[in-house]
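Quick start: what a row looks like.
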Amino acid sequence: MLSLAELDKAVIEIWPHFNHKPALMRAYKAADKNGTGLISRKEFGFFLKYVVTYNNLWARFKEIDTNGDRRVASQEFCTAASSLGIATESQARIAFRRMDTNGGGVVLFDEFCNWMTEVKMGVTNPTDGCALSDMDYAGTKVNTQAAAQYGRRSITPSSQGGASSLHSRAASSQGGSAIAGRRASGRSSVASSRGGGGSTFVTPTKEEIKKLFSRTDVNGNGMLSLAELDKAVIEIWPHFNHKPALMRAYKAADKNKTGFVGRSEFELFMRYIPMFTDIWSTFQRIDPNGDRRLSKEEFVGAAASMRLPGSPSESELGHIFDHADGNKEGYLLFDEFCGLMADIKMKA
């Protein structure tokens, strides 16, 4: 079984050209057919297909999103309509209204993906990209009726954002220098960021949280998608922009498992994001080789610096590690480490 953290690590190391988090998240959610939050061997085949598809869609979305705010306005879409094979502005506006299902005036990546699903296969009300399993964005499997409705032609992936071959991208990434550079640049702990430049996080009041929710809810539907939360963190709290921590906060706040964070859940998200960022900072600090997994030796060796309650012995630390290593693979991923730290906090 593969967690999101494992998939994220694999994409970064093996297929860095697919390392676009909105596309990765769509692929992960679409491949998780049984809703367990983990990708099985059988589902992994779907994931490999989806990660290519959604990266191609992300490349096209970025081309249309000229100001880079991760949302497409009507004018941006109409300007790019001809590149999508839409002949007239009136047809483009009809297509935009169809994408903008909640009438918010902007289209997020999820909405764009759903619309493209409908255009490609004639599937209405697609959910989590489930209809994409038989799609080929090289253009060989186009639903002609849907394409005619919007005047769409097939997408040819751009060389910058798209990716038509998983294997060729993997082969081109063997040098690995970019990966190391990303790891090195990403290791800024919360503690250090709080110490300089006035970046201290102060928990907002309830009134401030209401205003922050409205600011983040760009399409006004009363629910926050992962894309909206990601954008808010990047713009408002850049020191919390660590995707593993963001994902844990998002999943923990989504109490009703809808895939969205509601108004009442947003307050929980605001509490979780600094907490999981602190845990991520600790995780990175005791993961000296930066492989996003902790061996027993790394965990035991770093225990003193973690100030665990009760000052457990080396033998006791080994038992703590074995208990946290639920799948018995001999290392802890970030999700498992979070569970361990939660257990320690409750017992303290």
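That is the whole record. The longest helix spans residues 41-64. The first strand starts at residue 72 and ends at 73.
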